[in-house]
């Protein structure tokens, strides 16, 4: 009876295990040591996700015109992270873009995402998206784009549906004989599973189209 009580105490107080194992029989002592070693290994394997990182995100997008107002597109993207030493995310998107007129484009598409936030964790996600993008007429060389996107997400531990609204402003500038675009964007996320606005993503930078085949794009997920 005393042995049983002492063994239970060793599980409740791992730091005092060495003190109690000296009083246990050999089978109980061996079992206690195995339990502690397994717990230590499990604790070390759970690495927290980094709070900051440096990444490179190459992307390839293929567009196939179907007619004057519809395109089929395929996009792939990988994220090299952990200080550009390992793959941390892979994305694949396929869908259609329908140009209703000069100011409105509709795009239904499928989106697959695989992430590795830490070397020992892998997450997978499938999304069905529908985007309606409005492009306003140029205003004193400023270009404004408003994208409204609905997405259904299948993932662990819970599925969700989100609405995303992104407002993008661009302005062309010349540096020497090269033309660039300065841009700033703000995107807000509403998640129906949380019933709240859960994210606000702000971005700013400069972009340049080198030719008709090599351009800057934004496929943020």
Structure notes:
- This protein has 221 residues and is an alpha+beta fold.
- It has two domains: 2-45, no CATH class; 59-207, no CATH class.
- 16% of the residues lie in helices and 51% in strands.
- It contains three helices and nine strands; from the N terminus they run H-H-H-E-E-E-E-E-E-E-E-E.
- It has helices at residues 2-12, 17-21, 26-45, and strands at 59-65, 70-81, 86-99, 104-115, 123-135, 143-155, 160-175, 178-191, 196-207.
- The model is unreliable at 1-22 (pLDDT under 50).
Which key phrases capture this entry?
221 residues, 3 helices, 2 domains, single chain, alpha+beta
Break the fold down into its secondary structure elements and pairings.
Layout lengths: L1 H11 L4 H5 L4 H20 L13 E7 L4 E12 L4 E14 L4 E12 L7 E13 L7 E13 L4 E16 L2 E14 L4 E12 L14
Antiparallel strand pairs: 1-2, 2-3, 3-4, 4-5, 5-6, 6-7, 7-8, 8-9
Order of helical and strand elements: HHHEEEEEEEEE
Classification by helices and strands: alpha+beta
The DSSP helix count reads 3
Residue fraction in strands: over 45%
Low-pLDDT segments: 1-22
Major sheet details:
9 strands, antiparallel
Distance linking N and C termini: 59 Å
| Overall tally of domains | 2
Assign an overall shape: globular
User: Residue share in helices?
Assistant: 10-25%
Look at the structure and give the mean pLDDT.
83
Could you give the count of β-strands? 9
Gyration radius, in Å: 26 Å
Q: What spatial order of strands do you see in the largest sheet?
A: 1-2-3-4-5-6-7-8-9
